[in-house]
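ok trying again, last paste got cut off:
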Amino acid sequence: MGIAGEGVAMIVVEELSGRAKAVLRAVAAGRAQVTGGCEPDLYIDGLPCCDQMVSHDLVHAGLLRGLRAVGLDERTEAVLTDAGRAAIT
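nice, full thing came through this time. structure:
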């Protein structure tokens, strides 16, 4: 999934699994961090996310991102984008 604009995010939102929505809710609750890079790793409550494919898809779809740019071995708080917030409302 690539980010090609708002239309892509809306299509992805309609196809989210329960697990993907749970990940977004964890991010919204301030429980998640991501690493830097084009395929960032997601951590929830300090532990690696059990489904990195879901987290990669959510990042690529533009539903979540890091709060700031960090290196590959660094973490930053994960935050929802507007589309990510819409996906769980």
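cool. Residues 6-87 form one domain. The radius of gyration is 12 Å.
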